[in-house]
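[Meeting: bench + compute handoff]

Bench side (C.D.) handed over the final construct sequence. Compute side (W.E.) agreed to return the predicted structure before the next meeting so the bench team could plan truncations. Sequence as handed over:
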Amino acid sequence: MSRANHLDIMTLRMLPPRLELRQVSKIYTSDGQKVEALCDVSLRVEAGAVTALVGRSGCGKSTLLNLAGAMDFPTSGDVLIDGRSTTALSEQELTALRRKRIGFVFQFFQLLPTLTVLENVELPLLLAGDADTRGPALDRLRWVGLEDKLHSMPHQLSGGQMQRVAIARALAHSPDILLADEPTGNLDTASGDQALKLLRESADRFGAAVLIATHSAEAAAIANTRVRLRDGRIAEIDPS
C-alpha cells in the first residue's frame, strides 16, 4: 500500500463511523414465543477498518449482519449508515443502498451457476444500472488473481476460487460497507488465508468498513476490533 493510500485510510478513520448501531435490540416471534436475538447492542464500524463478530452459534452474529446490511430492521434502537438511520429510508433508497453501497460475502459463495465468473462479478453493476460493467469486473478479478478464469463456470472452480470470485463480486461496485458471514467456514486453511488477506485489503486498499461474522480465530486475527457476542449481547470489545 502506498503512503498516499495509507494517508487516505487514516483520514477515513477520523471521520464519523460509516456504520453505527445504537442500543439495538431485535426480537423475533417463533411459534408464539418471543425470541430476543439482540439486546441493547451499540457498536461503531469505521471506514478502512475490519471488525470481527465472534461467539457461539445463535449468539446474534448473523442477525447483526442482516441489520447492518439493511436486510432487516431493529425492533428498537437505530442502525445508522453515515449518520442516517436505515429505518428512515424509503424502499427506493433502501434498494439503492443495498445495490450501490453494501457488499456481501457468504459462507457458501452464492454464485449463480448459469453465469460465468465474469458475468457473476458484473451482476451487481448491472443491478445498480452502471453503464460500464466489464471494466470494474475485470479490475476486481485481476485483483483476486483470477483473470485467467473469466469464462469458467462456478462448478469448474475450487472452493477457494469461488470465494475469491465472491469477494470480487462484493467489491465490484466499490461499496462503502463489506459484510462477510463466515467467509472461511467452507474453505481449507490455505484458501481461507487467501480470502482473509483479500478481506483485509478491502479495508486497507479500498477503504471499506468491513464487518465479519466468524467462528475462526484466524479470521478474527485480521480485525482491528473484535466484538464478542453472548446471548445477543456484547460481552467484550477487544481493540487491537
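W.E. noted at the follow-up: The beta strands are 19-30, 33-45, 50-54, 76-81, 84-85, 102-105, 177-181, 209-214, 225-230, 233-239. C.D. will use this when planning the next construct.
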